[in-house]
Specification:
The protein is of the alpha+beta class and about 220 residues long. It is built from eight helices and five strands, in the order H-H-H-H-H-H-E-E-H-E-H-E-E. Helix 2 packs across helix 3 and helix 5 packs antiparallel against helix 6.
C-alpha cells in the first residue's frame, strides 16, 4: 500500500499538518520518508522494520549497504533514510554547540555523548575556545587507546595555535562505559596541561563521556 492509498485520516503527512510533528510516531515519520511499501507488505510494516533495525544498532555506524539488506529497501530508500538521520544529527550538534556554557560541564557532554559516547574505540577531541569562551571548532585528534604516543601535544595544539584558540577542553570516550580515568588518561592530561601553560593556551578541563553520562577530570581533581 502506498501512503496515498491510506484512509486520509491515517496518512502521516495529513496527520502532521493537523496535529504537528510532535504527534508523529517514529514509524509514521519513516512512512513519510519511504512513501511506499513492497508487494508483500505495506509501508506501515516496512517502516516498523526499518525503525526497529535503527533502534537495535548504533545509527552512526549504519551505512547504505546495511539498510539495503532489509527486504524492501533499495538504494533510493536507503540514501533517503541516512540523509534524514544525518541532518537530524547535524542540527542537534549545532544546537548543542550554540548552547555551550563554560560553567556547565554537561553542555560539553551534550555535544559529545551522542557523537562518540557509544563508539567501540576511543575518540580524543579538543574543543577550541576563543577569548569569550565561545566554541571555535571541535578537532578530532586521534582514534584508539589513549597514550602519549597517540595523543601528542603537537597534534593537540597545532589546530589551537593555527585557529587562535585562547583555551581548550579535552574530551574522549571510554568504550567500556566506565567514566573512571585510567592512569594513561591522567598522565596524558597532566602532560598536555603543562604544555598548554608553556604555549599560552589553557587546558580548562578533560571530560570523559559515555553514551549518557560524563565526568570532569578538572572537577574530580585528577589534574
Amino acid at each position: 500500500m502506498r501512503v496515498k492509498e491510506m484512509n486520509e485520516s491515517l496518512r502521516p503527512r495529513e496527520k502532521m499538518k493537523i496535529n504537528g510533528i510532535s504527534s508523529m510516531s517514529d514509524e509514521e515519520l519513516m512512512q513519510i520518508i519511504l512513501k511506499t511499501g513492497i508487494k508483500e507488505e505495506g509501508v506501515e510494516i516496512l517502516s516498523k522494520r526499518v525503525v526497529d533495525y535503527i533502534n537495535e544498532n548504533d545509527y552512526k555506524d549504519i551505512c547504505v549497504e546495511d539498510l539495503m539488506k532489509i527486504k524492501g529497501i533499495g538504494m533510493a530508500k536507503a540514501t533517503s533514510i541516512l540523509a534524514g538521520i544525518e541532518i537530524g544529527r547535524r542540527l542537534a550538534l549545532r544546537k548543542a554547540m550554540a548552547s555551550f556554557s563554560l560553567n556547565d560541564p554537561d553542555s560539553v557532554a551534550e555535544i559529545f555523548c551522542n557523537e562518540i559516547g557509544s563508539c567501540d574505540v576511543e575518540n580524543f577531541y579538543a574543543l577550541l575556545l576563543d577569548t569569550k569562551n565561545r566554541i571555535i571548532s571541535k578537532e578530532l585528534i586521534s582514534k584508539g587507546t589513549i597514550n602519549q604516543s597517540i595523543v601528542h601535544p603537537r597534534e593537540v595544539f597545532k589546530s589551537a595555535i593555527k585557529k587562535g584558540a585562547n583555551s581548550i577542553i579535552l574530551v574522549h570516550n571510554h568504550p567500556s562505559g566506565s567514566l573512571i580515568p585510567s592512569s594513561a588518561d591522567i598522565e596524558v592530561t597532566k602532560r598536555l596541561d603543562k604544555v598548554g601553560d608553556l604555549v599560552g593556551i589553557q587546558v580548562l578541563d578533560h571530560i570523559i563521556v559515555s553514551s549518557n553520562d560524563s565526568l570532569s577530570m578538572r572537577k574530580g581533581m585528577y589534574f
